[in-house]
Structure formats: structure tokens, C-alpha cells
Amino acid sequence: MIEVSGQGGQVQFDGQHLTITRKGFLARATQGKGEKRLHISQISAVQWKPAGPMMNGFIQFTIPGGNEARARFGSQTTSAAKDENSVIFTKQQQPDFEKLRAALDDAIAAQHAPKQAAGAPASVADELTKLAALREQGLLSPQEFEQQKARLLGL
């Protein structure tokens, strides 16, 4: 579980769900108090602006169907403060947010990685390789190998 606190919002990430919580005066003044919970599959991108010596940074979560607009130069952080999917952070808070960002990037990549059914063979070629290894180990006779090969190739 990763928990980070920014300006006007806290973010928790448990590996599957991202929760943005807002409480206190600053939250009431910007977004309103409350909680927003997103499954990792709902997050399509993470926008990042590092904090500078004089300006806060932000992390923003893009969700399909979200209403995104590119802020004009010099007002990105101000615009992010008004976005319910963003959390502003200071230069001191940035290292914690960098860890959160890395964990989210990994989780998003894993979500979009091709999945293979458990126990399902990768390909016919892989199955033939396994059969050949069994034959070489003496666990399959040459006749059994040929039968299994014909079955795999649909002969």
C-alpha cells in the first residue's frame, strides 16, 4: 500500500485501486471534500509535472471519457488544482509521489500486457518442443511421439 499526501488531497494505491481523498479547508475550497476510487484498468495515463523551486508539481490521472484540456503555458498547476483527478504536491513531497508514479506505471503496463490462460500452451511449436524433449528422455516412444505430433498438427 502506497499512501502519499499532497496539497489538498491524499492518494492511496493498493496495487489494484487508486483512491483520492480530499478533506479539510483546502479541499473544500478547490474540489470539495470526498473520495474518488478508480480501478487500475480505468486509468489510461498518468500526467506528471515535477515541482520546481517556486512552483508546485502535480500528478494527474487520465481516464477514458474524461474531459481533458491542455492548460496554457504557466497555468498548468493552477488548472490541475481544479481537476478532480489531480493532486498537487510540493518539492518536499515529490519523492513520495515519484514512488507512487512508478508503481502506477508498472501496474498500468501489467494491465495492458497480453495475458495467456493458465496452463494453456503458448503455441504448437512449444508443444512439439516439449514432446521432443519427452521422447529424448525416453518418456515417450517414437510411435507415441508421432501420434501426438499428428494430433497437434491436425493430421
What does this structure look like?
It is a single chain. The strands form two sheets. A four-stranded antiparallel beta sheet has the order 1-2-3-4. The model has no long low-confidence stretch (mean pLDDT 81). Helix 4 packs antiparallel against helix 5. The longest helix is centred in the middle third of the chain and has 19 residues. It folds into two domains: 111 residues, Roll (PH-domain like); 30 residues. It has 155 residues and is α+β, with helices and mostly antiparallel strands. 36% of the residues lie in helices and 24% in strands.
Q: List the total number of helices.
A: 5
Number of strands: 7
- The amount of helix comes to 25-40%
Q: Can you identify the CATH class of the largest domain?
A: Mainly Beta
Task: Give the C-alpha Rg.
Answer: 25 Å
Kindly report the spatial arrangement of strands forming the biggest sheet. 1-2-3-4
Q: Tell me what portion of residues adopts beta-strand conformation.
A: 15-25%
* Overall 3D form: rod-shaped
Largest sheet geometry = 4 strands, antiparallel
The CATH architecture name of the largest domain reads Roll
Mean pLDDT: 81
Stated plainly, the CATH topology of the largest domain is called PH-domain like
Structural classification = alpha+beta
Poorly predicted parts: none
Termini separation comes to 53 Å
Total number of distinct structural domains: 2
Along the chain, the helix and strand elements come as EEEHEEEHEHHH
